[in-house]
Amino acid sequence: MRSIRKFAYAAVLGMSMFTLQPTLAAAEDAHGSFTLTHEVHWQKCVLSPGEYMFSIKAEGPSELLTLRGMNGTGTNAIMLVTDVESPKPEEVSSMLTLVSRNGQSFVSTMTLPEYDMTLHFSVPPDRVSREIASK
Q1: Residue 107, CA atoms < 13 Å, CB-side half-sphere
Q2: What is the DSSP letter of 44?
Q3: Which residue in 72, 95, 109, 123 is a FRET match for 84, CA 20 to 30 A apart?
């Protein structure tokens, strides 16, 4: 009885490996390039002005974004992206959305409609100066 159970377990495990394989091979990695005209903060990374290549690979429940400088210096940043959604219908071209916080630029989204994804990145909250009334 025990050997039948082991055989059934091995058969199920083997079949699941074959059913997952085509899905992984069929997934298309997103890739492209962009140019930064000034220093930009991208989550915990700081990128200098210049041309960059990017690639995005699915890694389990999140995507892995790799950024490389095109001047041959190697990998500049690798980060996990956990917040991905489909782009809005009006978003028809690829773009990086930058927001300004305290005189610095931060990447908030990367829209890639050709790959049907918009990636969201963490941005520090905008500091609002508040006056406290004294009595």
Answers
A1: 23
A2: T
A3: 72
